[in-house]
Amino acid sequence: MPAKSVNDIVALCKRRGFIFTGSEIYGGMGGTYDYGPYGVELMRNIRNAWWNAMIYSRNDIEGMDASVITNRLMWKYSGHEGSFSDPLVECKKCGARMRQDKMKDPTKCDNCGSTDITEPRAYQLMMGLSIGAMANGEINAYLRPETATTTYVNFKNVLDSKPHKLPFGIAQIGKSFRNEISPRGFVFRMREFEQAEMQYFVNPAEDEKYFEYWKKMRLAWWVDTMGIRSEKLRFKPHEKLAHYAKAAVDIEYDFPDGFDELEGVHNRQDFDLGSHTKGQDEFKLAAHVMENKDSTTKLAYSDAQTGETFIPYVIETAMGVNRAMLAVMLEAYEDEDLGDGKTRTVLKLKPWLAPVKAAVIPLVRNIPEIVDLSNKIVEDLRRLGIGKIELENSGNIGKNYRRHDEIGTPVCITVDHQTLEDGTVTLRYRDSMEQIRINKDDVVKSVLDIVNQK
After folding, report:
1. 83 contacts: CB under 8 Å, gap ≥ 6
2. What is the DSSP letter of 56?
3. CA distances from 169 to 96, 122, 152, 212 (A)
4. Degrees (nearest 5) of the Cα angle 20, 21, 24?
5. Is there a contact between 361 and 373 (Cβ–Cβ < 8 Å)?
6. Is 334 within the bounds of a domain?
7. What is the tens place of the pLDDT at every residue in 140-183?
8. Model confidence at 127, in pLDDT bands (50, 70, 90)?
9. 1 is a domain residue
10. Does residue 390 lie within any of the structural domains?
11. 162: Cα separation from own chain's centroid
12. Which residues make Cβ contacts (< 8 Å) with residue 6, sequence separation at least 6?
Protein backbone atom coordinates (compact mmCIF):
# COMPACT_ATOMS: atom_id res chain seq x y z
CA MET A 1 0.00 0.00 0.00
CA PRO A 2 1.45 3.41 -0.93
CA ALA A 3 1.55 6.37 1.44
CA LYS A 4 -1.97 7.50 2.36
CA SER A 5 -0.81 11.06 2.95
CA VAL A 6 2.31 13.17 3.33
CA ASN A 7 2.00 12.49 7.07
CA ASP A 8 3.26 8.94 6.46
CA ILE A 9 6.46 10.41 5.05
CA VAL A 10 6.70 13.02 7.82
CA ALA A 11 6.58 10.26 10.45
CA LEU A 12 9.16 8.14 8.63
CA CYS A 13 11.47 11.14 8.18
CA LYS A 14 11.43 11.92 11.89
CA ARG A 15 11.73 8.29 13.00
CA ARG A 16 14.60 7.34 10.71
CA GLY A 17 16.57 10.58 10.60
CA PHE A 18 15.71 11.96 7.17
CA ILE A 19 14.25 15.37 8.07
CA PHE A 20 13.78 17.27 11.34
CA THR A 21 11.90 20.49 12.08
CA GLY A 22 14.26 23.49 11.95
CA SER A 23 15.14 24.93 15.40
CA GLU A 24 12.92 22.22 16.91
CA ILE A 25 14.09 22.48 20.54
CA TYR A 26 13.08 26.16 20.52
CA GLY A 27 9.62 25.58 19.12
CA GLY A 28 10.58 25.39 15.46
CA MET A 29 10.89 27.93 12.67
CA GLY A 30 8.14 27.85 10.04
CA GLY A 31 9.25 26.85 6.56
CA THR A 32 12.68 25.56 7.62
CA TYR A 33 13.89 21.99 8.01
CA ASP A 34 17.12 20.24 8.97
CA TYR A 35 18.30 17.15 7.11
CA GLY A 36 19.49 14.24 9.20
CA PRO A 37 21.96 11.42 8.43
CA TYR A 38 19.81 9.76 5.79
CA GLY A 39 18.09 12.86 4.45
CA VAL A 40 21.38 14.50 3.62
CA GLU A 41 22.47 11.37 1.74
CA LEU A 42 19.24 11.16 -0.27
CA MET A 43 19.44 14.86 -1.12
CA ARG A 44 23.07 14.45 -2.19
CA ASN A 45 22.16 11.50 -4.41
CA ILE A 46 19.35 13.46 -6.09
CA ARG A 47 21.73 16.37 -6.70
CA ASN A 48 24.34 14.03 -8.12
CA ALA A 49 21.81 12.36 -10.42
CA TRP A 50 20.71 15.77 -11.75
CA TRP A 51 24.31 17.01 -12.12
CA ASN A 52 25.29 13.84 -13.95
CA ALA A 53 22.37 14.23 -16.39
CA MET A 54 23.03 17.92 -16.99
CA ILE A 55 26.82 18.19 -16.87
CA TYR A 56 28.73 14.90 -16.93
CA SER A 57 26.61 13.26 -19.63
CA ARG A 58 26.76 16.18 -22.06
CA ASN A 59 29.21 18.45 -23.91
CA ASP A 60 27.01 21.54 -24.10
CA ILE A 61 26.27 22.49 -20.47
CA GLU A 62 28.63 23.99 -17.89
CA GLY A 63 28.18 24.24 -14.15
CA MET A 64 28.60 27.17 -11.79
CA ASP A 65 27.91 28.15 -8.20
CA ALA A 66 27.00 31.78 -7.53
CA SER A 67 26.79 33.72 -4.28
CA VAL A 68 23.51 33.67 -2.36
CA ILE A 69 24.10 37.29 -1.21
CA THR A 70 23.42 39.51 -4.20
CA ASN A 71 23.54 43.14 -5.32
CA ARG A 72 20.19 44.88 -5.09
CA LEU A 73 20.44 46.14 -8.68
CA MET A 74 20.32 42.56 -9.94
CA TRP A 75 16.77 42.17 -8.61
CA LYS A 76 15.71 45.63 -9.65
CA TYR A 77 16.35 44.90 -13.32
CA SER A 78 15.10 41.31 -13.17
CA GLY A 79 11.76 42.75 -12.03
CA HIS A 80 11.75 40.95 -8.70
CA GLU A 81 12.08 44.03 -6.51
CA GLY A 82 9.04 45.65 -8.05
CA SER A 83 6.75 42.69 -8.63
CA PHE A 84 7.92 39.58 -6.76
CA SER A 85 5.13 39.58 -4.19
CA ASP A 86 1.99 37.78 -3.06
CA PRO A 87 -1.42 39.33 -2.29
CA LEU A 88 -1.71 39.37 1.51
CA VAL A 89 -4.94 39.92 3.47
CA GLU A 90 -5.49 40.09 7.23
CA CYS A 91 -8.54 39.09 9.22
CA LYS A 92 -9.59 41.99 11.46
CA LYS A 93 -11.31 39.60 13.87
CA CYS A 94 -8.63 36.96 14.59
CA GLY A 95 -5.53 38.60 13.09
CA ALA A 96 -4.71 35.73 10.74
CA ARG A 97 -2.75 36.65 7.62
CA MET A 98 -3.35 34.74 4.40
CA ARG A 99 -2.45 34.71 0.72
CA GLN A 100 -5.62 35.80 -1.00
CA ASP A 101 -4.96 33.58 -4.03
CA LYS A 102 -4.71 30.50 -1.78
CA MET A 103 -7.82 31.15 0.35
CA LYS A 104 -10.77 28.74 0.14
CA ASP A 105 -13.06 31.74 -0.20
CA PRO A 106 -11.43 35.15 -0.84
CA THR A 107 -14.23 36.85 1.09
CA LYS A 108 -13.92 34.77 4.28
CA CYS A 109 -11.12 34.11 6.75
CA ASP A 110 -9.83 30.54 6.49
CA ASN A 111 -9.17 30.55 10.25
CA CYS A 112 -12.38 31.90 11.81
CA GLY A 113 -14.81 32.44 8.93
CA SER A 114 -15.13 36.19 9.44
CA THR A 115 -15.87 38.34 6.40
CA ASP A 116 -14.16 41.34 8.02
CA ILE A 117 -10.86 41.14 6.15
CA THR A 118 -8.56 43.83 4.78
CA GLU A 119 -8.00 44.67 1.15
CA PRO A 120 -5.05 42.73 -0.35
CA ARG A 121 -1.64 44.33 -0.31
CA ALA A 122 1.61 43.28 -1.96
CA TYR A 123 3.83 41.21 0.32
CA GLN A 124 7.50 41.22 -0.69
CA LEU A 125 8.85 37.68 -0.98
CA MET A 126 12.54 38.51 -1.14
CA MET A 127 14.62 38.53 2.04
CA GLY A 128 16.44 41.83 2.29
CA LEU A 129 19.84 42.35 3.90
CA SER A 130 21.71 45.29 5.35
CA ILE A 131 25.33 44.72 4.32
CA GLY A 132 28.36 46.70 5.52
CA ALA A 133 29.16 49.05 8.37
CA MET A 134 27.58 52.07 6.62
CA ALA A 135 24.27 50.40 5.75
CA ASN A 136 22.40 51.85 8.77
CA GLY A 137 19.82 49.07 8.62
CA GLU A 138 18.68 49.89 5.10
CA ILE A 139 18.21 47.06 2.62
CA ASN A 140 21.07 47.18 0.11
CA ALA A 141 21.28 43.50 -0.83
CA TYR A 142 19.09 40.40 -1.01
CA LEU A 143 19.36 36.70 -0.37
CA ARG A 144 18.66 35.35 -3.83
CA PRO A 145 15.08 34.09 -4.36
CA GLU A 146 16.25 31.84 -7.23
CA THR A 147 19.47 30.65 -8.85
CA ALA A 148 18.48 31.61 -12.40
CA THR A 149 19.23 35.34 -12.28
CA THR A 150 22.70 34.76 -10.87
CA THR A 151 23.28 32.54 -13.91
CA TYR A 152 22.15 35.20 -16.39
CA VAL A 153 24.48 37.88 -15.04
CA ASN A 154 27.38 35.41 -15.42
CA PHE A 155 26.50 34.51 -19.01
CA LYS A 156 29.41 36.45 -20.51
CA ASN A 157 31.87 35.28 -17.85
CA VAL A 158 31.15 31.65 -18.65
CA LEU A 159 31.09 32.18 -22.43
CA ASP A 160 34.42 34.05 -22.41
CA SER A 161 36.18 31.54 -20.17
CA LYS A 162 34.69 28.40 -21.76
CA PRO A 163 33.60 29.29 -25.31
CA HIS A 164 30.58 27.48 -26.77
CA LYS A 165 28.53 27.71 -29.90
CA LEU A 166 24.78 27.99 -29.51
CA PRO A 167 22.96 26.16 -28.13
CA PHE A 168 24.66 25.72 -24.78
CA GLY A 169 23.61 25.84 -21.14
CA ILE A 170 24.68 26.82 -17.65
CA ALA A 171 23.46 24.81 -14.65
CA GLN A 172 23.38 25.56 -10.92
CA ILE A 173 22.31 23.79 -7.76
CA GLY A 174 22.04 25.88 -4.62
CA LYS A 175 20.04 27.49 -1.84
CA SER A 176 17.37 30.11 -2.47
CA PHE A 177 15.28 32.07 0.00
CA ARG A 178 11.71 33.38 -0.09
CA ASN A 179 9.74 35.06 2.66
CA GLU A 180 6.71 32.80 2.17
CA ILE A 181 3.53 33.93 3.91
CA SER A 182 2.30 30.40 4.57
CA PRO A 183 4.84 27.60 4.03
CA ARG A 184 2.97 24.34 3.48
CA GLY A 185 3.10 20.68 2.56
CA PHE A 186 6.11 19.72 4.71
CA VAL A 187 9.12 20.43 2.44
CA PHE A 188 6.90 21.23 -0.55
CA ARG A 189 6.98 25.00 0.02
CA MET A 190 9.61 26.48 2.32
CA ARG A 191 11.40 29.72 3.14
CA GLU A 192 14.84 28.19 2.61
CA PHE A 193 15.04 25.63 -0.15
CA GLU A 194 17.34 24.19 -2.77
CA GLN A 195 16.97 24.59 -6.52
CA ALA A 196 18.46 22.81 -9.52
CA GLU A 197 18.07 25.09 -12.53
CA MET A 198 19.52 24.99 -16.02
CA GLN A 199 19.44 27.88 -18.48
CA TYR A 200 19.84 26.79 -22.11
CA PHE A 201 20.79 29.60 -24.49
CA VAL A 202 19.50 29.21 -28.04
CA ASN A 203 19.20 31.07 -31.31
CA PRO A 204 15.76 32.77 -31.34
CA ALA A 205 14.96 30.89 -34.56
CA GLU A 206 15.25 27.56 -32.72
CA ASP A 207 13.49 28.29 -29.44
CA GLU A 208 10.39 26.16 -30.06
CA LYS A 209 12.47 23.13 -31.04
CA TYR A 210 14.52 23.25 -27.87
CA PHE A 211 11.51 23.95 -25.67
CA GLU A 212 10.00 20.66 -26.86
CA TYR A 213 13.37 18.92 -26.57
CA TRP A 214 13.79 19.84 -22.90
CA LYS A 215 10.23 18.89 -22.05
CA LYS A 216 10.96 15.41 -23.36
CA MET A 217 14.38 15.16 -21.68
CA ARG A 218 13.17 16.23 -18.26
CA LEU A 219 10.13 13.94 -18.23
CA ALA A 220 12.34 10.98 -19.16
CA TRP A 221 14.75 11.83 -16.31
CA TRP A 222 11.99 11.66 -13.72
CA VAL A 223 10.93 8.24 -14.96
CA ASP A 224 14.27 6.60 -15.74
CA THR A 225 16.51 8.09 -13.05
CA MET A 226 14.17 9.04 -10.22
CA GLY A 227 11.93 6.00 -10.54
CA ILE A 228 8.66 7.92 -10.85
CA ARG A 229 5.99 5.96 -12.70
CA SER A 230 5.00 7.71 -15.93
CA GLU A 231 1.30 7.49 -15.07
CA LYS A 232 1.97 9.61 -11.96
CA LEU A 233 3.37 12.47 -14.08
CA ARG A 234 1.77 14.92 -16.46
CA PHE A 235 2.48 18.15 -18.32
CA LYS A 236 0.37 21.13 -17.34
CA PRO A 237 0.77 24.22 -19.57
CA HIS A 238 0.52 27.55 -17.77
CA GLU A 239 -2.94 29.01 -18.32
CA LYS A 240 -1.60 32.53 -17.83
CA LEU A 241 1.90 33.26 -19.04
CA ALA A 242 4.27 35.63 -17.28
CA HIS A 243 4.87 38.79 -19.29
CA TYR A 244 8.33 37.60 -20.36
CA ALA A 245 7.37 34.04 -21.33
CA LYS A 246 6.58 32.71 -24.76
CA ALA A 247 5.66 29.27 -23.41
CA ALA A 248 5.71 27.52 -20.02
CA VAL A 249 4.75 24.10 -18.74
CA ASP A 250 4.96 22.31 -15.40
CA ILE A 251 5.82 18.67 -14.92
CA GLU A 252 3.35 17.67 -12.20
CA TYR A 253 3.37 14.67 -9.86
CA ASP A 254 0.28 13.03 -8.42
CA PHE A 255 0.83 13.77 -4.72
CA PRO A 256 -1.63 12.29 -2.16
CA ASP A 257 -3.57 15.58 -2.31
CA GLY A 258 -3.55 15.71 -6.12
CA PHE A 259 -1.28 16.83 -8.94
CA ASP A 260 1.19 19.61 -8.20
CA GLU A 261 4.38 21.00 -9.68
CA LEU A 262 7.68 19.12 -9.63
CA GLU A 263 9.58 21.07 -12.29
CA GLY A 264 9.00 23.90 -14.71
CA VAL A 265 10.18 24.17 -18.31
CA HIS A 266 9.99 27.71 -19.66
CA ASN A 267 10.71 29.61 -22.87
CA ARG A 268 11.79 32.95 -21.40
CA GLN A 269 12.64 34.56 -24.77
CA ASP A 270 15.38 37.22 -24.52
CA PHE A 271 13.95 38.81 -21.38
CA ASP A 272 16.63 37.77 -18.91
CA LEU A 273 19.82 38.55 -20.83
CA GLY A 274 18.06 41.57 -22.30
CA SER A 275 17.13 42.90 -18.86
CA HIS A 276 20.71 42.80 -17.60
CA THR A 277 22.59 43.82 -20.73
CA LYS A 278 24.37 47.05 -21.46
CA GLY A 279 23.29 48.88 -24.61
CA GLN A 280 19.78 47.43 -24.87
CA ASP A 281 18.90 49.73 -27.80
CA GLU A 282 21.48 47.98 -29.98
CA PHE A 283 19.43 44.78 -29.99
CA LYS A 284 15.98 43.95 -31.31
CA LEU A 285 14.56 42.53 -28.10
CA ALA A 286 11.30 40.59 -28.34
CA ALA A 287 10.57 40.89 -24.61
CA HIS A 288 9.70 44.14 -22.88
CA VAL A 289 12.47 45.04 -20.43
CA MET A 290 13.21 47.83 -17.98
CA GLU A 291 15.75 50.39 -19.19
CA ASN A 292 19.10 49.45 -17.70
CA LYS A 293 21.68 52.20 -17.17
CA ASP A 294 23.72 50.32 -14.57
CA SER A 295 24.94 47.19 -16.37
CA THR A 296 28.58 47.24 -17.45
CA THR A 297 28.45 44.32 -19.90
CA LYS A 298 26.70 43.38 -23.13
CA LEU A 299 25.20 39.95 -22.57
CA ALA A 300 25.12 39.11 -26.26
CA TYR A 301 26.32 36.30 -28.50
CA SER A 302 28.32 36.80 -31.71
CA ASP A 303 27.80 34.19 -34.40
CA ALA A 304 31.16 33.61 -36.10
CA GLN A 305 29.54 32.20 -39.24
CA THR A 306 26.93 34.90 -39.89
CA GLY A 307 28.66 37.82 -38.18
CA GLU A 308 25.38 38.56 -36.37
CA THR A 309 25.38 39.69 -32.74
CA PHE A 310 22.17 39.13 -30.79
CA ILE A 311 20.65 38.35 -27.41
CA PRO A 312 19.94 34.60 -27.15
CA TYR A 313 16.62 33.19 -26.02
CA VAL A 314 16.58 31.11 -22.83
CA ILE A 315 14.93 27.72 -22.32
CA GLU A 316 14.88 27.09 -18.56
CA THR A 317 14.39 23.92 -16.57
CA ALA A 318 13.76 24.61 -12.86
CA MET A 319 13.44 21.91 -10.19
CA GLY A 320 13.12 22.13 -6.41
CA VAL A 321 15.47 19.53 -4.90
CA ASN A 322 13.52 19.32 -1.62
CA ARG A 323 10.28 18.82 -3.52
CA ALA A 324 11.97 16.17 -5.66
CA MET A 325 13.01 14.32 -2.51
CA LEU A 326 9.43 14.36 -1.22
CA ALA A 327 8.09 12.97 -4.51
CA VAL A 328 10.77 10.28 -4.66
CA MET A 329 10.00 9.16 -1.10
CA LEU A 330 6.25 9.11 -1.73
CA GLU A 331 6.76 7.08 -4.89
CA ALA A 332 9.06 4.58 -3.15
CA TYR A 333 7.03 4.22 0.06
CA GLU A 334 5.08 1.00 0.65
CA ASP A 335 3.37 -0.60 3.62
CA GLU A 336 3.44 -4.32 2.88
CA ASP A 337 1.26 -7.01 4.41
CA LEU A 338 3.49 -10.00 5.11
CA GLY A 339 0.66 -12.20 6.42
CA ASP A 340 0.00 -13.53 9.93
CA GLY A 341 -0.60 -9.97 11.08
CA LYS A 342 2.91 -8.87 10.16
CA THR A 343 3.69 -5.78 8.08
CA ARG A 344 6.74 -3.87 6.99
CA THR A 345 7.39 -0.36 5.72
CA VAL A 346 9.85 -0.18 2.85
CA LEU A 347 11.31 2.53 0.63
CA LYS A 348 11.84 0.91 -2.77
CA LEU A 349 14.26 3.58 -3.96
CA LYS A 350 16.38 3.22 -7.05
CA PRO A 351 19.68 1.81 -5.73
CA TRP A 352 21.70 4.87 -6.80
CA LEU A 353 19.36 7.08 -4.76
CA ALA A 354 19.41 4.97 -1.59
CA PRO A 355 20.98 6.80 1.41
CA VAL A 356 22.81 3.60 2.38
CA LYS A 357 24.06 1.43 -0.46
CA ALA A 358 24.67 -1.69 1.66
CA ALA A 359 24.61 -2.75 5.31
CA VAL A 360 26.88 -5.42 6.77
CA ILE A 361 25.41 -7.25 9.76
CA PRO A 362 27.39 -9.59 12.04
CA LEU A 363 24.81 -12.09 13.31
CA VAL A 364 26.40 -12.12 16.76
CA ARG A 365 28.39 -9.23 18.13
CA ASN A 366 30.44 -11.03 20.78
CA ILE A 367 32.40 -13.34 18.50
CA PRO A 368 35.56 -11.44 17.40
CA GLU A 369 36.07 -13.51 14.24
CA ILE A 370 32.59 -12.64 12.93
CA VAL A 371 32.92 -8.95 13.85
CA ASP A 372 36.41 -8.70 12.33
CA LEU A 373 35.28 -10.30 9.08
CA SER A 374 32.27 -7.94 8.96
CA ASN A 375 34.58 -4.95 9.36
CA LYS A 376 36.79 -6.26 6.56
CA ILE A 377 33.79 -6.47 4.19
CA VAL A 378 32.74 -2.94 5.16
CA GLU A 379 36.24 -1.64 4.41
CA ASP A 380 36.28 -3.37 1.02
CA LEU A 381 32.90 -1.85 0.10
CA ARG A 382 33.86 1.63 1.28
CA ARG A 383 36.91 1.60 -0.97
CA LEU A 384 34.51 1.50 -3.94
CA GLY A 385 33.42 5.08 -3.20
CA ILE A 386 29.80 4.30 -4.11
CA GLY A 387 28.26 5.97 -1.06
CA LYS A 388 27.44 5.21 2.54
CA ILE A 389 28.14 1.66 3.79
CA GLU A 390 26.96 0.83 7.31
CA LEU A 391 28.05 -1.74 9.86
CA GLU A 392 25.10 -2.89 12.00
CA ASN A 393 26.38 -4.45 15.21
CA SER A 394 23.23 -4.53 17.36
CA GLY A 395 22.84 -8.29 17.21
CA ASN A 396 19.10 -8.27 16.31
CA ILE A 397 18.94 -9.37 12.71
CA GLY A 398 15.18 -8.90 12.30
CA LYS A 399 15.19 -5.30 13.56
CA ASN A 400 18.21 -4.52 11.42
CA TYR A 401 16.45 -5.76 8.30
CA ARG A 402 13.33 -3.72 9.09
CA ARG A 403 15.33 -0.56 9.75
CA HIS A 404 17.16 -0.84 6.45
CA ASP A 405 13.90 -1.60 4.63
CA GLU A 406 12.56 1.72 5.96
CA ILE A 407 15.57 3.76 4.88
CA GLY A 408 15.72 2.05 1.48
CA THR A 409 18.99 0.09 1.70
CA PRO A 410 18.91 -2.19 -1.37
CA VAL A 411 20.94 -5.07 0.13
CA CYS A 412 22.12 -6.37 3.50
CA ILE A 413 25.06 -8.74 3.98
CA THR A 414 24.93 -11.00 7.02
CA VAL A 415 28.05 -12.63 8.45
CA ASP A 416 27.35 -15.68 10.66
CA HIS A 417 28.79 -18.93 12.02
CA GLN A 418 28.55 -20.58 8.61
CA THR A 419 30.79 -17.84 7.20
CA LEU A 420 33.57 -19.04 9.48
CA GLU A 421 33.05 -22.60 8.23
CA ASP A 422 32.71 -22.22 4.46
CA GLY A 423 33.41 -18.52 3.67
CA THR A 424 29.86 -17.72 2.53
CA VAL A 425 27.64 -14.81 3.65
CA THR A 426 23.92 -14.13 3.28
CA LEU A 427 22.79 -11.51 0.75
CA ARG A 428 19.31 -10.27 1.61
CA TYR A 429 17.51 -8.19 -1.05
CA ARG A 430 15.28 -5.33 0.08
CA ASP A 431 12.45 -5.54 -2.44
CA SER A 432 11.91 -9.31 -2.59
CA MET A 433 13.36 -10.15 0.87
CA GLU A 434 15.05 -13.07 -0.91
CA GLN A 435 18.14 -14.41 0.83
CA ILE A 436 20.97 -16.21 -0.95
CA ARG A 437 24.39 -17.46 0.09
CA ILE A 438 27.44 -16.24 -1.82
CA ASN A 439 31.17 -16.40 -1.24
CA LYS A 440 32.43 -13.48 0.82
CA ASP A 441 34.94 -12.72 -1.93
CA ASP A 442 32.05 -12.04 -4.35
CA VAL A 443 30.36 -9.42 -2.15
CA VAL A 444 32.02 -6.41 -3.77
CA LYS A 445 30.99 -7.43 -7.29
CA SER A 446 27.45 -8.28 -6.17
CA VAL A 447 26.93 -4.91 -4.45
CA LEU A 448 28.33 -3.07 -7.46
CA ASP A 449 25.92 -4.93 -9.73
CA ILE A 450 22.98 -4.01 -7.47
CA VAL A 451 23.89 -0.33 -7.17
CA ASN A 452 24.46 0.02 -10.92
CA GLN A 453 21.42 -1.94 -12.06
CA LYS A 454 19.04 -0.16 -14.44
Report:
1. none
2. I
3. 44, 34, 11, 16
4. 110
5. no
6. no
7. 898 999 999 999 999 999 999 999 999 999 999 999 998 877 77
8. confident
9. no
10. yes
11. 27
12. 185, 186, 188, 255, 256, 257, 326, 330
213: which residues sit within 8 A by CB, 6+ positions away?
none
Side-chain-side CA neighbours of 38 within 13 Å: the count stands at 24
Residues 120 and 268 in one domain: no
What's the CA gap between 334 and 223, in Å, rounded? 18
Beta strands in 256-383, from DSSP E residues, in sequence order? 258-267, 301-302, 309-310, 313-320, 333-339, 342-347, 356-362
> Angle, to 10 degrees, between the axis of helix 37-51 and the axis of helix 321-332?
110
Q: What's the CA gap between 166 and 61, in Å, rounded?
A: 11
Range of the domain at 376: 354-451
Question: How many whole angstroms separate alpha carbon 228 and alpha carbon 433?
Answer: 22
For the entire predicted model, the pTM comes to 0.90
Distance CA(298)–CA(302), nearest Å, equals 11
113 and 52 within one domain: no
By CB atoms closer than 10 A (0-12, 13-18, 19+), residue 148 is buried
Cβ neighbours of residue 340 closer than 8 Å, sequence gap 6 or more: none
Query: Using CB atoms within 10 A of its CB, is residue 295 exposed (0-12), middle (13-18) or buried (19+)?
Result: middle
Burial class of residue 438 (count of CB atoms within 10 Å of its CB; 0-12, 13-18, 19+): middle
- Poorest-confidence range of 72-76, 214-218, 415-419? 72-76
Note whether 65 and 95 are same-domain residues. no
Q: Which residue type is seen at 304?
A: A
**Structural domain total, the chain:** 3
Query: Comparing C-alpha atoms, which of 355, 348, 397, 356 is closest to residue 378?
Result: 356
Are 341 and 347 a contacting pair, CB within 8 Å?
no
